């Protein structure tokens, strides 16, 4: 130990990378869990290819998992990792350009065969040709060492080799002073019916740990002080899990059955999987024949008084558009969850993007406005899903909840709310009336009064044709004009009910940064950096993109410049420019990845100068 | 439902007549279907408020407005999915889908086959006029090959679907066909479909007097119809003809027509079995529809009992609750690995 240095760090970003069959997502997930349980704040970024098992050793088959953890609040999975665990040449090649200078590279040398180097398009072996100068390289023959550790195991060589990710995990546990208990428990539970696999994985994990401890190879191991988080009970949660829990919670608090009509699509399917487990929570999930069936069945369920929800990604929204228009017309509560991914068309199914905003705002025939709420982090997805349901039920209309691939799959610690502190959602129906009019409205919210099928004496019709207040089909020009305006006004009135975001920074100044959705973390970090140098920049992060906050118009007037960073070619910025007649500038990167702190800082500085 | 319940409810045709002015063309076959439906509904022993009519788009899809029950006039082809959501969320409701050949088999073909496959307890009535009426006369997926319409001035070059064949192949548990001009038979088919538990399907040959008049005249013309139609009845031989002097006989690989003496039909004639669930025979019967040498069969092709989707789902929910107990929100939110920050 004497030669080894115990280094204190404020924050660390580590990336695990290997073949898509190497178990990197699992390794990263285990590292995240034990990191969270050790008391750190963290955010993760799974980054995997669309192919389920891409050909081994290829560049496009590389699967990565990144996690940033710290004693301070963490808002992003980190721009440039400090540590890379590369299980093969392709993983090294794909990730090296993202690494911090002098980063630690733990490399599985056994995988650096001629064949694998060729597959990774290396002309010479980077371990030998000096191209890794400027990094701290730790070559470890992980495959050989794993086989050696498992020499007494009855497993085949192939199965033994599949334990090498646990060897790598063991090494990182030593590097970051982690306990192994959580992972050992997990292995025991996961392989409880396959004791030989459980045994082998535990051995590999221990062997990796002991190897790092006993050899002189690592000169440093790190200690990151524990985070000082708000007191409470925590768990790690991904955005998609949080949405599932938010939906169930809203249904329970509204005393309703939850009905999910959905069709499998990346990266939204986990919500369907998750909700399908909870039959005992009065959750009915219906895997429909297509996206249209998903939303149509959800709308049908809403019509009977259930909380109807449909979940999808951008291509699915395209298919659901006509039904979204019907939901606007029949004014029934419906929650449409869009986990955005790279587009257009099939695009980048497993990558992230914010390019569905205009689609969900305007992608329908006729005047069909729908409120849009955007979640800003994995844990925030819980609250955002709950709020989407609240508004849908209060105003009797469809609501779109936007998330994206990054926060859907990324995880962070979530402070679990006490059930009794979550508000009830009050829903009322007409049960008796001598003169029921299906489109008569609550004067405050403009929500129409609903009578559920099964209510004696209130039989009536709704549908896609324009109606008048009595529910009769009407082609009267003035009636259509009135109804179009009422449906728009109803969306505006959501603004009277939801909480508006707070302006971060001073009330007036040179530059206002406006953002929405999952860029929150990156922009938070960027602003922290900016505020050390400048005091004339403020930040407004939208939660409801439709309606826009009432305060925004006034806020904008107090700044000379406006900058809108987005992971698209400028969608919110179009809305801001149109709505407030302001010369807002945009900053855009559309790589299928989150924005990086550094580039947002640069963009802010450039805008200040410009 | 029991007679006593029907009596208690004391519903009549008038109870189901809505205040909406019916806007189908004069002479449209839809009027007949509406009239028979309003006759059947009060006889089902179901409280009026529990009926829901769901439709798509097209002439037939205006139907919900004309019955005084709950109803949704949806979007083109999508009635089956709205209806599925309704029935799964509230199995107490009696749900009808009213559709047409274009709505149900073209734009909504996918939903239709999946509804049949799932056996959700929904009654689908398909008004088949073999033409697009509301868009003013284009060919439909049931129009015969060579059909000349506005969108096929030189005749179509595609084969039609046979709706009954599709319903049978997709697994509907009740499948029947009837004709708008046969009010008694129509009423009987509607009633039996409505009483069936599971996905029931009734194809109604419906005349469009404006864009496809006479499409069904061989089977509706009083002078010819008895020669051209065989009415299938459970347990009875397939007898037809102007004087009930013909019957279908099974030759071993196909149906053939034999002459019989109406008073003394041969004892070994094949008889109709609605409950057999034998696809080979069902499909042989339906294939006669397009065979000019054989009569068109109407009546019930299939009536079998199978668990419905919603019953299986409820059973599954009960089972999970039995195994895991009623879900507790506190427990759900606090599941997985948790830790406490002091």
Automatic annotation (TrEMBL), chain A:
PANTHER family membership: 2-OXOGLUTARATE OXIDOREDUCTASE SUBUNIT KORA, PYRUVATE-FLAVODOXIN OXIDOREDUCTASE-RELATED
A GO molecular-function annotation: oxidoreductase activity, acting on the aldehyde or oxo group of donors
Annotated ranges, domain Pyruvate flavodoxin/ferredoxin oxidoreductase pyrimidine binding: 258-469
Chain ranges of the Pyruvate/ketoisovalerate oxidoreductase catalytic domain: 21-209
Pfam families listed in its UniProt record: POR, POR_N
Protein name per its UniProtKB record: 2-oxoacid:acceptor oxidoreductase subunit alpha
Keywords: Oxidoreductase
Highest rank taxon of the organism: Bacteria
Gene3D superfamilies, per database record: 3.40.50.920, 3.40.50.970, Pyruvate-ferredoxin oxidoreductase, PFOR, domain III
Coiled-coil residues: none
UniProt-listed GO biological process terms: response to oxidative stress
Organism of origin: Caldithrix abyssi
UniProtKB/TrEMBL annotation, chain B:
Keywords, alphabetical: Oxidoreductase
Domain Thiamine pyrophosphate enzyme TPP-binding span(s) in chain numbering: 57-204
Single GO BP term: cellular respiration
Keyword Oxidoreductase attributed: yes
Molecular functions (GO terms): oxidoreductase activity, acting on the aldehyde or oxo group of donors, iron-sulfur protein as acceptor; thiamine pyrophosphate binding
InterPro entries in the record: 2-oxoacid:Fd_oxidoreductase, OFOB, THDP-binding, TPP_enzyme_TPP-bd
Record keyword Oxidoreductase present: yes
Co-factor requirement: [4Fe-4S] cluster
Protein name: 2-oxoacid:ferredoxin oxidoreductase subunit beta
Lineage: Bacteria, Pseudomonadati, Calditrichota, Calditrichia, Calditrichales
């Amino acid at each position: 130990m004497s030669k080894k240095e115990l280094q204190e760090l404020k924050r660390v970003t580590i990336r695990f990378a290997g073949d898509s069959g190497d178990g990197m997502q699992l390794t990263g997930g285990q590292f995240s869990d034990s990191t969270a349980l050790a008391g750190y704040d963290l955010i993760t970024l799974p980054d995997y290819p669309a192919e389920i098992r891409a050909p081994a050793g290829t560049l496009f088959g590389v699967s990565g998992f990144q996690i940033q953890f710290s004693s301070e609040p963490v808002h992003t999975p980190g721009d440039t990792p400090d540590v890379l665990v590369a299980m093969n040449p392709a993983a090294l090649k794909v990730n090296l350009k993202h690494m911090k200078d002098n980063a630690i590279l733990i490399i599985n040398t056994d995988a650096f065969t001629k064949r694998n180097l060729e597959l990774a398009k290396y002309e010479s072996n980077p371990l030998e040709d000096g191209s890794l100068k400027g990094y701290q390289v730790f070559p470890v023959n992980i495959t050989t060492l794993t086989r050696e550790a498992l020499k007494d195991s009855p497993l085949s060589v192939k199965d033994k080799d599949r334990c090498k990710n646990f060897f790598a995990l063991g090494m990182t546990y030593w590097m970051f002073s982690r306990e192994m208990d959580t992972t050992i428990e997990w292995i025991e539970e996961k392989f409880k019916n396959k004791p030989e696999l459980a045994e082998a994985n535990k051995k590999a994990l221990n062997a990796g740990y002991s190897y790092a401890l006993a050899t002189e190879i690592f000169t440093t191991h790190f200690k990151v002080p524990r985070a000082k988080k708000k007191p409470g009970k925590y768990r790690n949660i991904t955005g998609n899990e949080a949405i599932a829990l938010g939906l169930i919670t809203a249904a329970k608090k509204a005393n309703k059955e939850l009905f999910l009509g959905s069709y499998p699509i990346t990266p939204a399917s986990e919500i369907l999987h998750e909700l399908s487990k909870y039959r005992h929570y009065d959750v009915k999930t219906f895997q429909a024949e297509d996206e249209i069936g998903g939303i149509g069945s959800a709308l049908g369920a809403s019509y009977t008084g259930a909380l109807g929800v449909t979940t999808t990604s951008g291509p699915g929204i395209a298919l659901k558009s006509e039904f979204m228009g019907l939901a606007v017309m029949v004014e029934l509560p419906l929650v449409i969850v869009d986990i955005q991914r790279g587009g257009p068309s099939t695009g980048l199914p497993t990558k992230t993007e914010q390019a569905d905003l205009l689609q969900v705002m305007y992608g329908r025939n006729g005047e069909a406005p729908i409120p849009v709420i955007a979640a800003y982090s994995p844990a925030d997805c819980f609250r955002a899903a709950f709020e989407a349901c609240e508004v849908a039920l209060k105003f009797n209309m469809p609501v779109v909840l936007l998330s994206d691939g990054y926060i859907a799959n990324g995880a962070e610690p979530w402070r679990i709310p006490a059930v009794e502190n979550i508000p009830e959602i009050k829903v009322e129906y007409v049960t008796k009336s001598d003169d029921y009019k299906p489109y008569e409205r609550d004067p405050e919210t403009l929500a129409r009064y609903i009578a559920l099928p099964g209510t004696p004496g209130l039989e009536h019709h709704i549908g896609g044709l324009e109606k008048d207040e009595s529910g009769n089909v009407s082609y009267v020009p003035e009636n259509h004009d009135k109804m179009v305006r009422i449906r728009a006004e109803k969306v505006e009135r959501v603004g009277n009910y939801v909480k508006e975001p707070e302006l971060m920074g001073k009330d007036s100044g040179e530059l206002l940064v406006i953002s929405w959705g999952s860029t929150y973390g990156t922009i938070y970090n960027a602003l922290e950096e900016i505020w050390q140098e400048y005091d004339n920049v403020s930040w407004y992060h939208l939660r409801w993109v439709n309606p826009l906050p009432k305060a925004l118009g006034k806020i904008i007037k107090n700044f000379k410049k406006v900058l809108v960073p987005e992971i698209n070619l400028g969608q919110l910025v179009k809305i801001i420019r149109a709505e407030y007649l302001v010369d807002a500038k945009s900053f855009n990167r559309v790589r299928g990845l989150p924005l990086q702190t550094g580039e947002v800082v640069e963009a802010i500085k450039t805008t200040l100068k410009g | 439902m029991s007679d006593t319940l029907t009596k208690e409810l004391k519903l009549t045709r008038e109870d189901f007549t809505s205040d909406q002015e019916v806007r189908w063309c004069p002479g449209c076959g839809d009027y007949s279907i509406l009239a028979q439906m309003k006759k059947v509904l009060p006889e089902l022993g179901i409280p009026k408020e529990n009926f829901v009519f769901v439709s798509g788009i097209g002439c037939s899809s205006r139907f919900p407005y004309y019955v005084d029950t709950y109803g949704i006039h949806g979007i083109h082809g999508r009635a089956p999915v709205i209806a599925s959501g309704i029935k799964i969320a509230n199995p107490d409701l009696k749900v009808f889908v009213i559709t047409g050949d274009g709505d149900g088999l073209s734009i909504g073909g996918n939903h239709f086959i999946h509804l049949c496959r799932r056996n959700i307890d929904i009654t689908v009535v398909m008004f088949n006029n073999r033409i697009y009426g509301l868009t003013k006369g284009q060919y439909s997926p049931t129009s015969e090959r060579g059909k000349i319409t506005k969108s096929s001035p030189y005749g179509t070059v595609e084969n039609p679907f046979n709706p009954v064949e599709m319903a049978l192949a997709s697994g509907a548990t009740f499948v029947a066909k009837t004709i708008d001009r046969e009010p008694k038979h129509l009423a009987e088919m509607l009633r039996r479909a409505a009483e069936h538990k599971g996905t029931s399907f009734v194809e109604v040959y419906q005349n469009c007097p404006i864009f496809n008049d006479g499409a069904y005249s061989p089977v509706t013309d009083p002078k010819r119809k008895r020669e051209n139609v065989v009415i299938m009845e459970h347990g009875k031989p397939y007898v037809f003809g102007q004087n009930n002097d013909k019957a279908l006989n099974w030759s071993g690989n196909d149906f053939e027509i034999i002459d019989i003496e109406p008073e003394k039909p041969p004892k070994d004639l094949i008889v109709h079995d609605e409950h057999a669930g034998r696809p080979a025979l069902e499909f042989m019967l339906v294939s006669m529809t397009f065979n000019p040498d054989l009569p068109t069969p109407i009546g019930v092709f299939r009536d079998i009992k199978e668990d419905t989707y919603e019953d299986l789902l409820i059973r599954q929910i009960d089972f999970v609750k039995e195994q895991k107990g009623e879900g507790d929100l506190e427990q759900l939110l606090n599941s997985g690995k948790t830790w406490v920050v002091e």
